[in-house]
Amino acid sequence: MTSPAVSSRALPHPARDEIRLEEVLHALSDPIRLRIVRELAGARGELSCSHFELPVTKSTTTHHFRVLRESGVIRQVYRGTAKMNGLRRDELDDLFPGLMAALLDAAVRQAVRLGD
């Protein structure tokens, strides 16, 4: 049996079949969230929340991660005291073939064009 302290740290995520395109697109429509996803896509594994240097407050950062998690774009798990984040790329690619590749490619092209 799991102790309450451990189970209270579990974060809710939509199951693969509950992920909806409009929620994914909404989550990725924000420049900060898109920046987080770009970093996760380029990482070899999970990244902690503290890895990201974002130009927003801690509470706003938390909000952005929650939107990404609740839309099904990322998976968040606690590893010790760190909240680790990983892109749900395989699931998203299965559900929406080509979407993430096209979005990430477009985001890189935009960043280059705008000098970000």
Automatic annotation (TrEMBL):
<dbReference type="InterPro" id="IPR036388">
    <property type="entry name" value="WH-like_DNA-bd_sf"/>
</dbReference>
<dbReference type="InterPro" id="IPR011991">
    <property type="entry name" value="ArsR-like_HTH"/>
</dbReference>
<feature type="domain" description="HTH arsR-type">
    <location>
        <begin position="13"/>
        <end position="107"/>
    </location>
</feature>
<dbReference type="Pfam" id="PF12840">
    <property type="entry name" value="HTH_20"/>
</dbReference>
<dbReference type="GO" id="GO:0003677">
    <property type="term" value="F:DNA binding"/>
</dbReference>
<keyword id="KW-0805">Transcription regulation</keyword>
<keyword id="KW-0804">Transcription</keyword>
<dbReference type="GO" id="GO:0003700">
    <property type="term" value="F:DNA-binding transcription factor activity"/>
</dbReference>
<protein>
    <submittedName>
        <fullName>ArsR family transcriptional regulator</fullName>
    </submittedName>
</protein>
<dbReference type="InterPro" id="IPR001845">
    <property type="entry name" value="HTH_ArsR_DNA-bd_dom"/>
</dbReference>
<dbReference type="InterPro" id="IPR036390">
    <property type="entry name" value="WH_DNA-bd_sf"/>
</dbReference>
<dbReference type="InterPro" id="IPR051081">
    <property type="entry name" value="HTH_MetalResp_TranReg"/>
</dbReference>
<keyword id="KW-0238">DNA-binding</keyword>
